[in-house]
Amino acid sequence: MKRISMVVFSMLSALAILLSLAAPVLAQAPPLPDPPPRGTIEGPPPSTKTSSYAGGILFVNDSEKDWTEPDSQFLGEIKCSDDKLNYIRTVDTKTGLSLQGPVGNEQSTGITDAIKALRQPTKVKLTYVMQGAAGFTRSWSLTGVTYHLTRYRILAVRQVSPAQNELIGYFDVSVPSKLEVKMDEKPCPVPAVPDVTIPSVTPGVKGTYEYLPVPGSQVVPPSIPGPSLFDKLRDWFAPPPEGLGSIFSFGEVKTYSGSELFGAAFIGIGETMVFRLPPGSYSVRASLKVVGIPFTIDAGSASASVPIILSVSLVGVEVIWYSMLIVAAAIALAIALWLLRLILGAIFGGGKKRKKEEDENKKQGKREPFEPVKPVGGLSETRTNEMNSPKRPNNPKFDPGNR
Q1: Distance between CA 370 and CA 388 in Å, rounded?
Q2: 92-106 pLDDT, tens digit each
Q3: Could you tell me if 46 and 153 lie in one domain?
Q4: Is residue 321 in some structural domain?
Q5: 264 and 346 in a common domain
Q6: Are residues 181 and 144 in contact, defined by beta-carbon separation less than 8 angstroms?
Q7: Closest C-alpha among 295, 292, 332 to residue 316
Q8: Which of 2, 99, 327, 359 is deepest in the core (most CB within 10 A)?
Q9: Is residue 401 part of a domain?
Q10: pLDDT tens digits for 331-361?
Q11: pLDDT tens-digit profile of 43-75?
Q12: Residue 391 falls within a domain, yes or no?
């Protein structure tokens, strides 16, 4: 039991919450609105733009727009060739929550369920095609990533008839939609030397490449490293994006002001949630469940006299998941070895037991069990019976009556 407790403690110690006070996140992104004043009442929202959740929570599609997050990276160059390069990059969805509390437990469940549903997809694979030309040298540079932002109003039902709903916050979800790329072009020198160049793989370079040469291309193919064995194993055994039921669940994060619940959200692996809350002091806690046992992880607190922005993300979830897999594999291996021992014992154990009994009999001077002699040719049945008799045959020399 002590060892199990130590394993669980080691696993939980790997989970942490990255909590930081943030200036307005990304000045280029549409900023989250301040939490609405309390008591802001609205009538019934449009049914075609409204989704209902637990605790009388309504999410209403309020507006949609595109925005671009600046980025800078050299993508590649194709000299004097019609070859093609595909640049592929996986980009995370961005989310933000502006909320006026306090909210009840059922309402926090409804908000968390809504965020789970509306933040999909959490990752988007974007591809940009770099097409070369035989008479030109073309180079490409990434300038940014465009996102499609959907903003939802969060309403809490206060009265059904006539409908009265209180505006308690906003939820933003920005889904990656396009890579913004700049191309430079100049004529090929004479004589032309076809070539394709991609950036070397370094920690600062993101994305992967596909090289597609035209038939008869004179270009020496660029060196494009494939995924390593470690990367493949990591992908095969990656933790489920939203946990595994009561066996392993994570991602529910709540903000408190004192004992009052002021916000709730679901944060997946590698994701960051931006909370915008009224002025005050707040603490952040994450809920975790391992093999049905619930745990709460404290992230600390933050306070401000103006509307506060918290950037929250979970780290260490993969460490806990892989630790669980290692423990499960060790238990499975121990059970398999135990079963194998039983099977081998059943197959070979009988002969060993018989030999052991024979050895013990020899040590004690015991004879082997008596086996009758069967009649053979040339011996009468009477003679055979005499041979089978455990007594000596009558011998007048030793018969006491013949003295």
Answers
A1: 9
A2: 999 999 998 888 889
A3: yes
A4: no
A5: no
A6: no
A7: 295
A8: 99
A9: no
A10: 999 999 999 888 887 777 656 666 666 777 7
A11: 888 888 999 999 999 999 999 999 999 999 999
A12: no
State the pLDDT at residue 372.
57
State how far the Cα of 91 lies from the Cα of 83, in Å rounded to an integer.
Answer: 26
With vertex at residue 169, the alpha carbon angle to CA 163 and CA 175, rounded to the nearest 5 degrees, is: 115
Nearest-10 Cα torsion for 149, 150, 153, 154: -100
Q: What's the total number of domains in the chain?
A: 2
Collapsing DSSP to helix, strand or coil, 2 comes out as helix
Cβ neighbours of residue 164 under 8 Å, at least 6 residues apart? 41, 42, 43, 157, 158
- Compute φ and ψ for 31, nearest 5 degrees: -70, 150
Q: Which of 315, 347, 364 is the last residue of a domain?
A: 315
321 burial level (CB within 10 Å; 0-12, 13-18, 19+): buried
* Residue 290 sits in the same domain as residue 146: yes
| Structure confidence at residue 17 (pLDDT) | 46
Q: What is the residue range of 347's domain?
A: 333-385
Task: Give the dihedral sign, CA 218/223/224/225.
Answer: positive
Ranges of beta strands (E only) in 93-163 are: 94-99, 123-131, 136-159
Single-letter amino acid code for the residue at 261: L
Grouping H, G, I as helix, E, B as strand and the rest as coil, residue 279 is coil
The token duo for 139 is 């180079």
In a domain, 304, yes or no: yes
Q: Strands 308-315 and 16-21, how do they pair?
A: antiparallel
Please tell me the predicted confidence (pLDDT) of residue 258. Answer: 85
Strand partners, 197: 77
DSSP state of 244: B
Name the phi and psi angles at 44, rounded to 5. -65, 135
DSSP state, residue 214: P
Q: Is 169 exposed, middle or buried, given 0-12, 13-18 or 19+ CB atoms closer than 10 A? A: buried
Question: 344 with 199, same domain?
Answer: no
